Amino acid sequence: MGVHVEEAIVFTNRMRLLAGVLVLACLVLVGPSGPIDGPFARSPRGEATADVVPNRVMTWNICNPCGENSADRAAEIATYAPQIIGMQEACVRDVERVQDYLASRYGLVYHVEYGTVLRKWGRCGGLPWNPGAYGQAVLSAAPMTDLVHREYPDGGSEDRGYMAVTTTVAGQPVRVFNTHLAQRRQEAARADQTGVLAAEITRYDRAIVLGDFNAVADAPELAAIWKLATDVDPRCRPSSPYGNCKPTTDWQSKFDYIFLRGISPLKHRVRPTRYSDHHMLYSDLDMSPARKNR
Fold first, then answer.
1. What's the pTM value of the predicted model, to 2 decimals?
2. What's the rounded Cα separation, in Å, for the pair 161 and 132?
3. Which of 141, 34, 30, 124 has the alpha carbon at shortest distance from 77?
4. What was the pLDDT predicted at 237?
């Protein structure tokens, strides 16, 4: 073998060794210390795999901006594994990451639809000229059809809206709504918004209405919804003493609801979480097709 050939082989081997060292160094640098939501993050399958609870629905205002990451949010959802989750204050990119974590880490596969009403860099990041989309999202273990998303004519101090899909809960078809009403101390705007929402809900004999209504149970602006549906909490009604409604926020107010029309609740739970200023509210439902529709 010639001298030049031997030198070329030695040089090639050294370059391969150097490349291997550089790759290993990069893995050390961006692996454990890299951001958990970064592009190289991977979630091990089988860590806590579970099936969804087919008659369970959840509403959760995930709080934005709150600086929490999608892995933590996915872990909270996986603990209760609902068939349907309605999210408010949701950025599309965040929801996509939550959806990926639920599938890859917990084996929970969800379809997702969005009811975004804003494109806001301050809320959802992205580039100033191409900001992320912000609003509501519905995750469902079953496919969804007939998506509708509407922005309210008067959103108050920030654009607000509702979305609706048709899907199945415990194998039964149902119309699911998800909304986020105007902020506190904007009663007139919320009254207009519930009027718009109620006009759509009344078209369906069986409906589930999820959301952050930013109002306590006896607030006048919720009257239009109470005429059509009841909350999953049997003790929480507009005529009930304030203390009968279990708080769903860190400031001890009941703002989050799962309203039911033509469906009965079985049990519900409010679960505080350190990843949002709103608690997770979920309920198991009686979806018996023999039940009389309202």
1. 0.82
2. 17
3. 141
4. 94
